[in-house]
Amino acid sequence: QVHLVEFGGGSVQSGGSLSLSCAASGDSVKIMSFAWFRQAPGKEREGVAAIGRDGVTRYGDSVKARFTVSQDNEKNTLLLEMNDLSPEDTAMYYCAASPVYDGTLRAQFYTYWGRGTQVTVSS
């Protein structure tokens, strides 16, 4: 079992930055890969960034060069640095954990999910 709790959402103006964190706990945390997903009202869930057990990262096309995913293994924390935010980034952001070795942006591979944190970007 893995328990995930997201922190750091909020409101920011266009062009601004926000940092999200996800605290992971549970017996299986050390063998998981992790990812961030987001979902805006009326839209499908979108893979934002993933980090595999080997540390390799993947990003969705819409956030490349603006978002950075990282992992603090000592603290079992997943981080997402978001820069140059735009209103199109407004969504609920979810942390997810998967037993798959590689970090994938495909939601069906993720077993554990947090409850999400809201990010709102105003123009």
Short overview:
The protein is mainly beta. 0% of the residues lie in helices and 50% in strands.
Care to describe what's here?
This protein has 123 residues and is mainly β. The protein has strands at residues 3-7, 10-13, 18-25, 33-39, 46-51, 57-59, 67-72, 77-82, 91-98, 112-113, 117-122. Strand 7 (67-72) and strand 8 (77-82) form a beta hairpin. The protein is globular, with a radius of gyration of 13 Å.
Oligomeric state of the chains? single chain
Average pLDDT over all residues = 96
Outline type = globular
* Proportion of residues in extended strands: over 45%
| Estimated structural class | mainly beta
What is Rg? 13 Å
Order of helices and strands: EEEEEEEEEEE
Number of strands: 11
Q: Low-confidence parts, pLDDT < 50 over ≥5 residues?
A: none
- The portion of residues assigned to helices is under 10%
Describe the main β-sheet briefly. Answer: 7 strands, mixed
Which tags fit this structure?
single chain, 123 residues, mainly beta, 7-stranded mixed β-sheet, 4-stranded antiparallel β-sheet, 11 strands
SSE arrangement:
Elements: E1 3-7, E2 10-13, E3 18-25, E4 33-39, E5 46-51, E6 57-59, E7 67-72, E8 77-82, E9 91-98, E10 112-113, E11 117-122
Parallel strand pairs: 2-11
Antiparallel strand pairs: 1-3, 3-8, 4-5, 4-9, 5-6, 7-8, 9-10, 9-11
